[in-house]
Each structure stands twice: as C-alpha cells, then as structure tokens.
Design a protein that fits this description.
By secondary structure, the chain is of the alpha+beta class. The protein has 7 helices and 9 strands, in the order αβαβαββαβαβαββαβ. The strands form 2 sheets. A 5-stranded mixed sheet has the order 5-3-4-6-9.
Amino acid sequence: MGVDWSVAAGTLDVSSALEHLDLLAEPVAAAVRELDDERVGVTEIDPELADTAAFCEQYGSPLELSANCVVVAGKRAGEVRYAGCVVLATTRADVNGVVKRRLDVRKASFAPMDDAVRLSGMEYGGVTPFGLPADWPILVDPEVAKAPAVVVGSGLRRSKIITPGEILAQLPGTELVEGLGR
C-alpha cells in the first residue's frame, strides 16, 4: 500500500512520518501516530523556504500538488468559530462565501496569526490539517482529495508532509466542500 511521493516531492527525499515524528509539531505527531498510515511522508526543508511559492521553486515541487491550510475565524452571537481550510496552492479559499456559510457567521476572515499559532500548537507558515483542534471542522476542497500526492505543512516551518490527498479527506472532522477553492 505504498505511495509515490516523488510526484509531489520534486528533488526532496521523503520518508515515513511515523519514523520521523521529530519533524512534526506535537499535535501533528499525535495525529500521525493515531492515523498509523505509512502513506504519510515527511521531509526536512530549509525553514526560510516554507512559504509555498519559495518551496515549490527551490525543490521543484509542482504548485498544483501543494495545498495550503489556513485557519479561518468568524463570530456568531459572541462565539468565535474556527475552521481549517485546505485548498490547492493554485486557488484561494472562498472565505467570505463558502466558509462563511459553513460556519454560519456574519463575517469570516483569516484568524489572527497569534490566535492560529496558539490554538493550533503549530508554527505560522506550517499549519496543517493534521492535528488541528478536534472541535474545528476541516474543510477540504475536493481537488485536494483527488491529488495522488500533495504537500502540506507539518506544523513546523522546517519540514513538509507529503501524502495522498485522500488521506486528508479521511482525517477526523473533515468535510469535502465543493467550491472551497477558487
């Protein structure tokens, strides 16, 4: 039940994340351990190249096989509601349309960096759907789920996870949302 990580990894060497949990933020490592799937890979990178465009350019990873996970927040009746949104790097999350309706809030926006980092336990620029708080929905664009392998954050800027998109669709709390990526 192997996976060809090379399609998304470009020039990077990828190995099983289960064997390199030290390359993952703690909540991400816990989620990967619980998932116990050898198809989740990890690779170390230069943390200065964690941002998607720089990463893809340096390591030869196709932009269409990179996914961004952003934390979105909205308020309803004084309650802040959060979600993780995963879209291909060639698109942008429809925050004020699709996400706003799903969260049932008047206005949705990217969560402030300090809140996203504190609440997720991940570094800014390394946020990933693996290990997000259990009470947050994880909204995934169906195009991400179809990818044979996709690059996402590891919770740290110094590494990336590479995994089949279908695994992201199977994470607890995940919902495939048509039109999420525009």
